[in-house]
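[09:14] KT: can someone run the structure on this one? pasting the chain below
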Amino acid sequence: MPRLLLATFFLLSVLSGCQLTGSSPTQTPEGITWVKTVSPPAGSAQVPYQQFELDNGLTVLLHEDHSDPLVNVDVRYHVGSAREEPGKSGFAHFFEHMMFEGSEHVDDHGKRIKEVGGYNNGSTNRDTTQYYQTVPANELERVLWLESDRMGFLLDAVSQRKFEVQRDTVKNERAFRIDNVPYGRVNETINQGLYPEGHPYSWPVIGYVEDLDRVDVDDLKQFFLRWYGPNNATLTIGGDIDVQQTLAWVKKYFGDIPKGPTIPATAPQPVTLEADRFVTLEDKVSQPVLVMTFPTSIPETDTSMRLSVLANVLGQGRDSVLYQSLVQTGQLLSAGASHQCGELACTFEIYGVGRQGQSLAEIRTLLTQTLTQFEAKGISDEDIDQIQSMVEADNIFALQSVDGKVSQLASDYTLYGDADRMNQRLSRLDAVTPKLVMESYRQWIKDKPGVNVSVVPAGRTDLVAAPANFNYQRPDYREMASTPKANPLALRETPNDLDRTQIPPPHGDVTVNIPRIYRADLDNGIHLAGTVSRETPTVTLQLSLPAGSLMEPNDKRGVAELTASMITEGGAGMSAAELTQALDKLGSQMSVNPGGYHTTVTVTSLKKHLRETLQLTYQVLSAPTFSEQDFERLKKQALESMAARADDAGWLAEQATSQLLYQDATFRAPQGGVAQDVEAMTLADVKRFYQQHYVLKDSEFIVVGDLSSEHAINLANRIQPWQPVPERHAQVARPVPRDEKSPQIWLVDKPQAPQTSIRMVRHGMPYDATGAMFKTRLANFNLGGNFNARINQNLRQDKGYTYGAHSGVYGGRQTGTIEVSADVRADASAEAIKELWREMAHAHENGFTEQELAYLRQSSGQQDALNYETPWEKAGLIAHIEAYNLADDYREAQKAILYSLTRQQLNAQAARWFDPNDYQIIVVGDAERLEGGLRQLGLPVNRLALDYR
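[09:31] RB: done, structure tokens below
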């Protein structure tokens, strides 16, 4: 069940009382002032930290966590799309891209992180822009050098060429994330209808293409000078750090950067509506959707907390009012509610997803009737108690990740000037009562005007909730672009007394905490593998049953998915709602997810509630309800989902890959099955699959958490088989590959698509940890296996054709593939294929350089320091080892291969596997527009009709 409540509350402590020390526990360097230290009591979910401030206004938050040899660094600037000028939308996000293009002393920011085994990225929202990276702990100084250089020395490195390429990249990103995605323009449309022109939330974060086309390099420089001073930034560092040394480095690299202009505080700007607005959005979708959005209060208030509780009860989870009234009964495919707050305003959203051809007027009536019934019934103290239990668990689970703790501190300080806000939120949650929630409902939602967006398939305006009475007309901002810029800000010169050309060396070595695995083969048929992790009082369990989709009969494709869905509908006398409520009261979660070889039941629990959680899980696994009513509803939902997935270009490309590479029906079938099989399926088929495959024999049980091996084995031994093992058990389908063909282009029509999805695919190898497949994966690293690889640098950074291009070497138990992919501008489709072909041919014929081999070694050598931090990551490692019968130290064997691998050995894999003549080319896009240009490439062009239905 999604925990949307957490996104609204951020993180709420379950224990009160943080201690503030009155004097600095650390001797600070000159130019840095200690502000406070927050030391929560033992067991609290509050993140402990120290706060400092540099003379130039930079706020520094430090959190020590020595449990893993890594550090996370977050630099957050208090500027997002809300601080853009009208007519220059998207600039904050565009500028985020420019910050990765190198600065005066740094050629490539991302490359300098990747080469030490770290990862980095950035994000922009309406209110802030975030830059973050996680690296092995001995590379902290390198990160501070990098971040300070782009804060203090960016503008001299900005060129017109970089500017133009990143502008193209942002346009491609908009097409990839919004314009070529089903329902991608919904949020943009809501904001246009809700906020008046000029309101900071009225335009999309990613911006409008026409605005991006108007800006120039001078605009970029002024944006940097206005918003990117240290006094508008928060530097948050968490992980395996030495506070004294970290402050010395912060002073060294950031201390001389001059302040920017004073930034005025932002005041909330909530909006009101005088009457309902009805907006129509035609899209390339199958299912109609109605979204009703109500403007509400300002963030971080008693009212916003009550509305968040209301959203949880009304529309989040299987036990919510909307789900029980409309989805459980089969009247809608999906329905929910959420309360969302930015820094300036909050909104309450209620949505309903209909079946193909269902009227949104009917859906609006269903939603409003449900709200009326809800008001008559109200909510209970038990509802609020359940939410508090969920929050308790969420807080504790959030402590498992350093980057999660760092992000929380950074966000709270940037938006509210205080990183220690948990007690305030906790007191607000404690003060919520059913009466106050219902008062907020009547004040903000009941009979209040809102924006009603009807999303309908193109040409089906007959399905709208009501005729449109609001059509957004954006003003023409072209005149603004020609207006002289008033009072431009002068350049700020950072003293260059420090030799910033030298990359800081690593400081010592890191010791990777590889999990120590214990195992047991039990009489009940379970193979148990686990590790002890005592950082938080939690337990993560994964029970994998031999019930995967590769065990489905060829005429029952989809039965594994339907069976897994039926399990979560309840059992042993519990309904789905009752199961959800029981788990929520414990702060636990359970999910059932089918894969190729197994269906995995995943459980997370606080240690103190593990016994009760396992009892609930066993009850539904051993005695599922399997009601005819639930089956028919889930079957209809599955069929609707199958119709909707054909709207997604990426899914079409994946299905075309399976269809071209395999002959047998099971391996060609998409995840979830095919419509003709599901249409004919009966509840008896589900029961039969359950009886044949939901057995403990040949199952795997992964246990990670605050349990000894003896305790875990004892728990697993208590699991009794709930049914006998059938005579014919776990028959797995075998792949039947299609014969290799000469290269051809296979064109899948997606009319009017603004982007083209391109895939070059071929058969590969089954998975191996240290053999040819592993070495080919190493060879792929510099072809398309990282951001700085050849094909991404070519198509994204040099040509501006795409938001991203990459390649991958994938292997499973029985088969494997090699795939090259890019989603490109439609007008660059043929040229993009030429470039991909050229890059692959070059790698095939000439291999890689010694410099690329050195980069591969640098990037991969220290990655394990980051790989086993959370229980989820530890469980994934153990599951992988068990699935392929690997040695516990197989990563050490891989590292030895990495360091001993010669360029000749690497290039031998490239010569064997990267010949473009061995690949089939899949193109998903507007066939009428593309076909002529594709034929000029000199390869056969075939229209491919997918048989996924």
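[09:33] KT: thanks! Residues 1-18 have pLDDT under 50 and may be disordered.
[09:34] RB: yep, looked fine to me
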